[in-house]
Amino acid sequence: VLAKKIVVLPGDGIGPEVCQEAVKVLQAVAEKYNHSFTFRSALLGACAIESTGQPLPEDTLAACEWADAVLLGAIGDPKYDQDPAAKVRPEQGLLGLRKALGLYANIRPVTAYDTLLEHSPLKPERISGADILIYRELTGGSYFGEKGRDSSLAYDTCTYTREEITRIAHLAFKAAESRHGLLTLVDKANVMETSRLWREVVQQIAIEYPKVEVDYLYVDNAAMQLILNPRQFDVILTENMFGDILSDEASVIGGSIGLLPSASVGAHTALFEPVHGSYPQAKGKGIANPIAAILSAAMLLEYFELKEEAKAVRDAVQKAISSNILTQELNQTSPYTTEQVGTFIAYTV
Amino acid sequence: VLAKKIVVLPGDGIGPEVCQEAVKVLQAVAEKYNHSFTFRSALLGACAIESTGQPLPEDTLAACEWADAVLLGAIGDPKYDQDPAAKVRPEQGLLGLRKALGLYANIRPVTAYDTLLEHSPLKPERISGADILIYRELTGGSYFGEKGRDSSLAYDTCTYTREEITRIAHLAFKAAESRHGLLTLVDKANVMETSRLWREVVQQIAIEYPKVEVDYLYVDNAAMQLILNPRQFDVILTENMFGDILSDEASVIGGSIGLLPSASVGAHTALFEPVHGSYPQAKGKGIANPIAAILSAAMLLEYFELKEEAKAVRDAVQKAISSNILTQELNQTSPYTTEQVGTFIAYTV
Ligand SMILES: CC(C)[C@H](C(=O)O)[C@@H](O)C(=O)O
Ligand SMILES: CC(C)[C@H](C(=O)O)[C@@H](O)C(=O)O
């Protein structure tokens, strides 16, 4: 019996609904494969602000530190978006958690599912077979650099150390080695000093991975190439802000952001969350796609080295997709609810 | 007789070829409408480094300051890309020129031509009718902020003053007023202090433009929305780096980056250049699309307040497109050369 502690942070908007389905699937896995998963729930984001005044309460951080892995729904509430300068905002909870847990690498697979190509804004022949793994640095850059204001100006500092670049680069190289052997570093080395450091460090590390071919692409060109020819990519490595932009952009390839999972890993624990946000307009309507959360749970199983279990979840998702057991954005004619999709996948596992 | 001085900076790669066609069109306009355009050519970029050691020779800057407008081809040579840390690089010429001429606003129209929809990687029904005008701040942000290195780290500073935001915001609001009345500010106000200043300033200026609706979009979401639904945008306003990324990304909408012009305006003079780069692989083959350079020349005419002339050029381009008098990337079966396309447009004006 494998015993693991999982903290669930349902968060805001559709977060709780999709988390519930992911937990349902994890429970089905535990039962079928005879593991013992202990779940504990905690507050993060707008819901945490509402009940404690803090976007990342101390209890939540303690629970995450206690856990073997964290499953997150989504955070964010439009009422805070009106005033991005407000002292307390949901995003601070997520950013604070990433920093506190040392989650320095955000990993996002982007897959074009053949039966869903019609839902993509891109032409099917451009995207069929696309399969990209994005490594986004998550605890450095202008997200966490010194920033400030005086009466006439504002500034943000983007900082990177060799050490910060090195640790995520090794992860990305290893991933490329186990995939198609191509790593693309995306930067703006013709303008940014930090980008030049990224290139330098990646060039050095490349020597240790002779089987991996390394490509360098400026971020403006990468934003274009992702749409023009997504199949040219295997593993993409990039800094925090460029990764934020490119991974959201890449989400259009698959046809629905509701399909895309992510993992954030670091020194101690790891966090798994769907790429989509809290999507407050859909809250409580049963129309949110739980697949991104469920595939995030599959990444969590992989992290526990439960390969077979992770594969079972992915196969079940594939079955839901090919059987058209999908929520309304992917199945207009006979849509299933969030719960129905989750239950189907849990039973199929 | 309107007399104007135009400095031409052919630059590198395909720059000289496309510039030649744009000048041909400007000469045809001068003849037909009885204006007197004086052309003077100067060095910028890799070609300038080769013959003077400097990417932006003093003579070139002096010529640009003397001119009423500048027409630029493209700069950049792959031999400098291998080493982005090299002391002298072609990009420095362009960045230095922008700064020296105070070209604080880069304006890029993105249009989906109906007869060319098939060439876009996006589905025709998503892009038909898309018509976006991007205002990218061009002399601030992390491009020109303090940057540096020590043995273990590198940093770039993104700085914006109220003044820098204010002057480009007015241009963008005026453009929105004369178009469809929607301005979208793209920022990352949930993370960046500079973005919060952008929001604050734009919110204040908005009061002066009651007919313009203002929308705020985070840059990650904008990167997604540009592909999901480009028709939702009218005028986009954003800072330097986000503008670099988003405007290149948006270039895929039209089906060919070879169609997209840009204008960079400032206090004194203005510079016009195609969005595409120096594309060295195509150099000297007669396959480069001159339309982006020619449409840049049309923007130059507009800047001289020669509305009718600018329209004549645009109509001639439209005629070339609808008659399929196009270079190979848009006309595989019976491609025309760079020169043939330019000559057709010059004769049609
Ligand atoms: C909510 C926001 C701060 C966050 C980010 O920019 O990292 C989000 O966009 C993401 O990608 O997880
Ligand atoms: C060449 C490079 C420095 C430049 C930029 O980033 O501004 C280019 O990409 C552009 O958009 O004109």
TrEMBL record, chains A, B:
It is found in: Cytoplasm. InterPro entries: IsoCit/isopropylmalate_DH_CS, IsoPropMal-DH-like_dom, Isopropylmalate_DH. PROSITE patterns: IDH_IMDH. Signal peptide: none annotated. It is an enzyme of class 1 (oxidoreductase). It catalyses: (2R,3S)-3-isopropylmalate + NAD(+) = 4-methyl-2-oxopentanoate + CO2 + NADH. Keywords: Amino-acid biosynthesis, Branched-chain amino acid biosynthesis, Cytoplasm, Leucine biosynthesis, Magnesium, Manganese, Metal-binding, NAD, Oxidoreductase. One of its GO terms (cellular component) is cytosol. Its EC number is 1.1.1.85. The keyword RNA-binding does not apply. GO terms for molecular function: 3-isopropylmalate dehydrogenase activity; magnesium ion binding; NAD binding. Mg(2+) binds at D220, D244, D248. Its main location: cytoplasm. Binds 1 Mg(2+) or Mn(2+) ion per subunit. The record marks Y143, K188 as: Important for catalysis. Its cofactor is Mn(2+); Mg(2+). Residues 5-345 form the Isopropylmalate dehydrogenase-like domain. One of its GO terms (biological process) is L-leucine biosynthetic process. Pathway: Amino-acid biosynthesis; L-leucine biosynthesis; L-leucine from 3-methyl-2-oxobutanoate: step 3/4. Catalyzes the oxidation of 3-carboxy-2-hydroxy-4-methylpentanoate (3-isopropylmalate) to 3-carboxy-4-methyl-2-oxopentanoate. The product decarboxylates to 4-methyl-2 oxopentanoate. Homodimer. NCBIfam families: leuB. Belongs to the isocitrate and isopropylmalate dehydrogenases family. LeuB type 1 subfamily. PANTHER family: 3-ISOPROPYLMALATE DEHYDROGENASE. This is 3-isopropylmalate dehydrogenase. It comes from Pontibacter oryzae.
